[in-house]
Target: DNA polymerase III subunit chi
Amino acid sequence: MTRVDFAFGAPDRLRAACQTARKRYLAGQRLVVYCSDGTRLSAFDRMLWAFDDTAFVPHVLAKDPLADRTPIVLTAADPQEAPGMPDAGAWLLNLDDACPPRYDGFERVLEIVSDEAADRQSARLRWRDYQAAGHSLHSHDLSRGA
Model:
């Protein structure tokens, strides 16, 4: 059963997602980042290059020829269809407002939630969907570290 972690209270959802991607990369782990909103996914892609002056987070879009050899893959399509998937140890970072398609093929799903009302509301709906599907849910408060 897929474990789902919600990190609530992020001052900036995309910045927190960049920090998460960096941690996964530094741990030598594969991460698929899903978002059906191309504008948000592009903003995340750009932010990964600039969120920290000294950070290097190798990442590509799923359609890139190097995607199967790159630790962080960004996709707006079915995450299970990302190059190199399925990968038993891969985690899925969801930046969408809805649950990603076929997320249950991943060991773990990460959800980052900002303090914005709309973001919190869509996160509550995702929480209920994951819970109804019987997944193990875990909550983390990012505001405590701020």
In short: The first strand starts at residue 3 and ends at 10.
